[in-house]
């Protein structure tokens, strides 16, 4: 005898089948970001002074869209940032030099987010300021000041004449991208730089501003005022005699304003190094949803704040390359 199934059982079977299919679809990976998504949680960031002001700006703007997100940011140098992120203490490190193979071997993953440069600096009250602006200082002369110290007095610099005053050389005491990049520009690394060690970008800027015969180097954002777009009071920028002809030619004279320097970095009139990309680093490709959303926002909406904040914006093609790394 044939068994007849009630019609309601057939409907129940179909309904259960549909629900199982829907549940299967729902278990697919959640997209990184949906329009109007309400995010909450904390992102921790540490590292390079070079990227700190822009990262703070990005955090402020991101929180306008996602007010329930907390972003903790601390600057302590690129070396500290890398150590913190590789040890799992923070989600992201701000980094201001190329990532090395040993760092990659420990799990460092990164995206480039903007570009800036390291600039040589001297005190605005230096009695040789006019000559420095006119003749500049060549890479070879900077090597003799920072590396082998065969030039120890201002009047030993080509183009400068006058009384003998010592060059008080300042460098960074913390492991940092700025000193490493300045060292690379001169053909060595941070460990080879001579001078009085000072902690942090603000520290070395203050040291030079307080020393009539001081010489140092700073990331762009610590040499220029973001509001006036002029170099900070008491601090002057060393114009580099790039073609070694003993003069600062018109095409080498781009230090008057922050925007002029940024344009020179962008079109590579200012050399690399000391120009360089800046990075955000994580330990392995980020798995934390909130971190991925933040990084994607930085490469998209966040780019509108880059130039205003005193940095150099990437080309659309380079932005697309970085976005591909997030996929």
How many beta-strand elements?
9
Protein structure class:
alpha/beta
Q: Which fold name corresponds to the CATH topology of the largest domain?
A: D-Maltodextrin-Binding Protein, domain 2
User: So what's the CATH class of the largest domain?
Assistant: Alpha Beta
Keywords:
single chain; 327 residues; alpha/beta; D-Maltodextrin-Binding Protein, domain 2; 12 helices; elongated; disordered N terminus
Layout of helices and strands, plus pairs?
Elements: H1 7-26, E1 41-47, H2 52-65, E2 69-75, H3 78-86, E3 92-95, H4 101-105, E4 108-123, H5 129-135, H6 139-146, E5 168-172, H7 177-185, E6 196-198, H8 201-209, E7 214-219, H9 220-223, E8 235-237, H10 258-266, E9 275-283, H11 289-299, H12 316-326
Parallel strand pairs: 1-2, 1-3, 5-6, 5-7
Antiparallel strand pairs: 3-9, 4-7, 4-8, 4-9
Describe it.
- The chain has helices at 7-26, 52-65, 78-86, 101-105, 129-135, 139-146, 177-185, 201-209, 220-223, 258-266, 289-299, 316-326, and strands at 41-47, 69-75, 92-95, 108-123, 168-172, 196-198, 214-219, 235-237, 275-283.
- It is α/β, with parallel strands linked by helices.
- It has two domains: 41-115 and 277-326, D-Maltodextrin-Binding Protein, domain 2 (3-Layer(aba) Sandwich), CATH 3.40.190; 117-275, D-Maltodextrin-Binding Protein, domain 2 (3-Layer(aba) Sandwich), CATH 3.40.190.10.
- Strands 1, 2, 3, 4, 5, 6, 7, 8 and 9 form a nine-stranded mixed β-sheet that branches.
- It is elongated.
- The model is unreliable at 1-35 (pLDDT under 50).
